[in-house]
Sequence to fold (90 residues):
Amino acid sequence: MIEFLLGKSSDYQNISIGDIKFYIIASILLVVLFVIFFIFSKTKGFKIRKRKEINEQKDIYVNPQIIKVQKADIDKELYNDKSVSESKKS
Fold:
């Protein structure tokens, strides 16, 4: 129990220098990979290609036409619909 409280344990694995070298080299390669991606993403050619891909994927948006409808136009349509429906009944 005292060994547990003091942090002494015989269950720890022995860490070798090879393991430490492996993790240092792996972390350095990972940092280099991120640096390369960062530098590559800042180049003009990359940005132009990305913009081109984004523009090709976008759907073409057509601005809608604004149609103004007044109450008189609605009344006229309703009147025409009624007269047409009455003439069909006859």
User: Anything to note?
Assistant: The two ends are 105 Å apart (CA to CA).
